[in-house]
Design goal:
This protein is mostly helical. It contains 18 helices and 5 strands.
């Protein structure tokens, strides 16, 4: 294995003579199988020698996360070439990352006892009920459980039991969140989740009967509020800002174009697989996540070029069939949080003023651009994969030029 990583005989000899040869070789072979490239394997091999030295590793015994962090600090602050150089955060984080993966691979990483919330059993039973009895989607179950956990964590901090819950407690919690970080829609969906939880709690006799029917959510109005997104010029700046030659740049550019040109949701971007692109017919198939099923689009040249650049220069070789995968092994499909980080980072770096900075804002920008181009609400709804074509009507609110045309209509002397 060392001969595949290093070419210089003295390097090979130094690594072969160091302690824990078999353990290091097995780990390096594992990383190679996961798709790690030769330069990265060289870096990891050198880091392993530092890990052994800084931890004064013994032949057996577990290693704690605290041990690794302390060794990483010593590694970052070690003297180099007669100089004392303060280590950076990235140096410490890299040491911790490699050491943690190595000891976990060897089965020598001591796992801290799991922290079990006092309300964990309630949430588990609630989640099982939503899955088996109501047949809700995994996304809906996660959403309901998360919102319910926010209330339960707040409530149990007061040293109260679920049997003592009153409608006043729920109203106090929703008001507190509404005055803080949650908007009207968030409070409304939280109230719906709590109503479902307390209906279940009443059946299980965890709480007093009748609480669920007293939970009221703030009223939401159809098409209330304005969709907020960047202008198309700002979208172009976001895409052009990723013109670098790093793997992350190629991936970010392809993702930003898919979000902006086709108005895809983040879950639809992360769900794309390699076979969704038909390069012969130049088409893209998207599995719309709101029940409309697969939808086929002509593959625009700029988007196709960005995806091809990512496939050639940015995407690591791996068995995963998803288009977008993690940059570092073991390679796996990226999550929606990665898409959010890519877009929000571009907003911040370019100083684009927008209250929301997530990937959905690019969907709004796409819809507004289609409307300004003369597309009807139905055409926009079909393009974006809306189940209800009327959902696109909200974008008329932000089309100032269209509203001005309406205002300029000659009423023939009626007024």
């Amino acid at each position: 294995m060392l001969e595949k990583i290093f070419e210089i005989p003295s390097f090979i000899a130094r690594h072969r003579q160091a302690l824990f040869l078999d353990e290091r070789l097995r780990f390096l072979a594992h990383l190679s199988d996961q798709g790690l490239r030769r330069p990265d394997l060289q870096t990891v091999a050198a880091e392993l020698l530092g890990i052994i030295r800084m931890l004064e590793l013994k032949e057996s015994g577990l290693v704690t996360a605290q041990d690794i962090r302390q060794a990483a600090q010593r590694w970052a602050e070690r003297p180099r070439k007669g100089r004392q150089i303060k280590g950076t955060k990235s140096s410490r984080d890299h040491f911790v990352n490699i050491a943690t993966k190595w000891f976990r691979f060897l089965g020598r990483l001591e796992q801290p006892p799991p922290v079990v919330a006092p309300f964990a059993s309630y949430l588990s039973d609630f989640a099982l009920f939503m899955d088996k009895e109501r047949g809700l989607s995994p996304e809906s179950i996660r959403s309901h459980c998360w919102k319910t956990s926010q209330f339960l964590a707040w409530f149990f901090q007061k040293k109260r039991t679920l049997t003592a819950t009153s409608i006043g407690d729920i109203e106090e919690f929703l008001a507190w969140k509404g005055d803080g970080c949650w908007n009207r829609k968030s409070v409304s969906t939280a109230a719906q989740a709590l109503r479902a939880f307390f209906r279940h709690a009443e059946l299980r006799e965890w709480c007093r009967p009748g609480i669920a029917k007293l939970i009221e959510a703030p009223r939401l109005y159809k098409k209330d509020g304005l969709p907020e997104g960047p202008t198309w010029d700002e979208v172009r700046k976001m895409v052009e800002s990723r013109q670098g030659h790093k793997a992350s740049d190629y991936r970010a550019r392809a993702i930003l174009l898919l979000l902006a040109v086709y108005g895809l949701r983040s879950s639809e971007v992360t769900g794309l697989v390699l076979s969704d692109f038909d390069w012969r017919t130049e088409t893209l198939t998207v599995d719309r996540r709101k029940g409309t099923g697969p939808q086929q689009y002509p593959l625009k040249r700029e988007v196709g070029d960005a995806v091809l650049d990512y496939l050639r220069h940015g995407r690591p070789r791996c068995e995963c069939r998803n288009l977008f995968v993690s940059l570092h092994p073991p390679h796996h499909p990226i999550g929606r949080s990665v898409v959010w980080i890519i877009t929000s980072t571009r907003f911040r770096e370019l100083g684009i003023r927008c209250r929301r900075r997530g990937p959905h804002t690019l969907r709004h920008a796409c819809a507004t651009r289609l409307l300004e181009g003369g597309a009807s609400f139905k055409e926009i709804g079909d393009f974006l994969g809306h189940r209800d074509a009327d959902s696109a009507g909200i974008y008329a609110k932000v089309n100032v030029s269209m509203l001005r045309q309406v205002a300029d209509v000659d009423l023939g002397g009626l007024l």
